[in-house]
Each structure stands twice: as C-alpha cells, then as structure tokens.
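Hello everyone,

My group is preparing for a crystallization screen and wants a predicted model to guide construct design. The compound we'll soak is zinc ion. Before spending weeks at the bench, it would help to have a computed complex in hand. I've included the protein sequence and the ligand's SMILES below. Output in structure-token form would be ideal because that's what our pipeline reads.
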Amino acid sequence: MVLILKVTSTEPRAPLAQLLEVPLGLDIWEVQSDYVVLRGAEAQAERLQRMGYSVEQLHMTETYLSTFATADAAAGYHSAETLEQDMRQLADSQPEVVELHEVGRSLENRPIWALRIGERRGSTRKVCFMGCHHAREWIAVEVPYLLADYLVQNANQNPVAQWLTQGEIWVVPMVNPDGHEFCRRHDRLWRKNRRPNPDGSVGVDPNRNYGYMWGTLNVNTSSHVPSDETYVGPRAFSEPETRAIRDLIARELFRGVITYHSYSQLILYPWGYTRRPIIDPTDRDQMVRLAQRFQELIGAVHDEIYTPQQSSQLYPTAGDTTDWTYGIYGVPSFTIELRPRTQAEGGFILSPDQIQPTWEENQPAALEFIQRVL
Ligand SMILES: [Zn+2]
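Reply:
Good plan to model first. Here are the tokens for the complex, ready for your pipeline.
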C-alpha cells in the first residue's frame, strides 16, 4: 500500500530538513517550513515514526484518485496523441513561421515533438521552453503548448512578429511521453520514464539524468536505487528522452531555457546539486533578478505567489535539466513549478479548469524571458 503522508516533527533528534538528506527512498512532493508531504510505503511510514517523526496519512491513494483523477479531468488535458495532432495543426496553420520537429524517440518509440517558431533566417538568437519531464505533472504540458499556440496566433503582431524576425523560439511540451501515457492509463501518480531496470523495477527520473554533476548525491531526492522515484539512472544521459534534449540543446545553442514542472508555485534557478550559490556574480544577479521579475509578473495576473529561490533551497538534486544547461552552456535556466501551491489543493492532480488561469499568469513571464533572451 502506498500512502500520501504529511510529516511533521517536534523532536530535536528528527529535524525535518534531515528527511531530505537521507536515502530512505521517499518520494518528496512538497516542502514547507513546518511540514513535508511525501509518498511512501507503509513500512517507510513506520520507519519514520520510529525515527521520531509525526506521520499523518492524508489520503489513501485510491480514494485520492477516485476523487481527483476522473475521466472528465483527464479529458481536459492532452494525451501524447492529441498533443501531436494539435502541434501538427499549429505547424500547418502558419508554415512560413512554424515547423514541427521530431527531436528524438522515447524508450517505447514515441516521437518527442518540438515546435520551432520563427522565420528561417539562420539566427543564433534562440530560446527553449520544455514541459513534462515528469509524467504526472500534466499542467506542465499545457503551459508550454499554450505558449506555442499564443506565439503562432500572434505571429503577425508585435512584439511577437519582431521576435520571430530576429530569432527562434523552440517549444517541447512533452519530454516524457511514455511516462505520460502510462500515467493516463494505469497510474495517475507515475513520475519517471518507462525504462525496465535490472532489478525488475521500472523507470529512471529524467530530471536526474542530465550530465552535470550527475550522480553526485545519494539522497531521497536523487537516488541510486532503481526502484526509487528519483532514480538517477545507471549513467548520465542513459535515457533516450534526455539524450533528445541534450542533442537539441547542443545543436541549437539556446540563449536561455525554461522547463515547466508542477507543483508548488516556485521559480527555481541553479544550483540544485549544491547549497552554494552560483559563483559568477553577473550570472547570479541576472538569474536572481529575472526570477524576482517573473514573480512580480505572475503575481500581477491572478494574485498567485510563485516563490523565487535557488533550486537546492527546496531540496538538493543532482543531474537536473537546469544545472546542466547552466553548467555546460552558461545560459539563464529556470525550473518553474506551476499550480497548485499545496497537496491540499490537489497537488499533481489539478482540475482542468485551472489550465487557463495557470497559463494566463505564466504568459507575461514567458514573454519577458523571450524579450530579454532574444
Ligand atoms: Zn517535476
């Protein structure tokens, strides 16, 4: 039985922060100053209690799923198939500025699609938006897709027209199509890709499989145990999904990268692998200021707070996308954790009526990033 647990502690021997630092194989969902929400097995819950933590069960997974993951809720979101159809349609609608590219294939041979939006001028000014490294984060498909849709619909009006003249915007809404399909059909809380591991478990965490400081941690949030939710894989870029993104970025040399995830409403910048800040003061200031600007722009739309912070302030992670894009290419790189803010508001399972407002509030920050980076 897998449980969703709210963990608190008043015991000095069991500080909450320590939960993130020890390799217990937990699936950490949410980190607040006074509690942590995670998913774990019954045995893990008992172990935490023996260590001195207070553990409260939030929902039995089944009840949770029947309440939130109905067919109606799924219908509001893209599947891999409907996403391909809609991306194709977008590309067909304005062939002079939009192209559909297959940037790679998943382990189960599903195409990983990207839209290149911009006039064909051989520009070196390029920016990249990605979504859905993690299967269960469905809203992280919709926000980059709606961004692409917006850019195409407004291709003839400034400032979009100007951007498409001077550069290119690449959008990859679903990096992990196998995981996403599995999540739609079998397990709404599936996170990883669908790699069969030698120990009989399935899945590598694609957002721990990038090749900068890969594998340097062995904690709950970046694990070397294949059955764990944050399994880093046998080596950096062992997965076809991350190799597709690696090759795209190596080829296009983007000037900036945003990758969407959910949930928690956060704006994260490197580093994830260390608590130390970025050393280069210019880079650090640029990213901190941009993150603060994003917070203002997002908050001005529907009064939602997205908190800017260094990625490792949430919890340490090694091998994530933005440590790699910044670490190797030195470009501004952000992970944006979308709605909702808490597990109590649905966590990974966001009602489809939230798609539009989540997009609306993220639009000005995405456009600001394009403006600054191009
Ligand atoms: Zn994620």
